[in-house]
Amino acid sequence: MILKLNFRGAILVAAAISGLVASAAPARADQCDDISKQLAHNIDGLKVNFKAANIVYLTHPAAKELSLGCRGNGQSYSNELYAKGDRRPTQQFYDLVGAAAAIIFTVTKDDTTTGATRCLKRMGILRGDKVSMRYRRLNMECTRTKTDAAISITRGKDE
After folding, report:
1. Predicted confidence band at 79 (pLDDT cuts at 50, 70, 90)?
2. Handedness of CA 80, 81, 86, 91 (dihedral sign)
3. pTM here?
4. Where are the domains of the chain?
């Protein structure tokens, strides 16, 4: 008994199987886009403007500037939230930063709001116009000028 192999048929079956496997795999969107959509969906008044390189620019009435930075090659952080507001931030600004950081870094909103408030309120005559602190595994850096106060929140890649 001689077994004949139909190579053309075997190739067609293999191609069909690989096509099904490739089409069954979900298409992955960029993580930055996913997070920005979550932010826009969960925070009232927040809108996604545009994306340039690894930064998504956002707008909200409580902030002068708001952006979400995602990790690129060679950077030492995973995600970064940058927010700029008035020199004396309002409670709405603290709430916005806390809510956005909670979504981005998957930490509770109370913790992120507390950390952002502490960082922004520490700036002054005794500590100066630039304060760096660590709170709940988040790195926070607050700066202030004569007209603005800004906060940058990051988490290291290894955390």
Report:
1. confident
2. negative
3. 0.74
4. 31-156
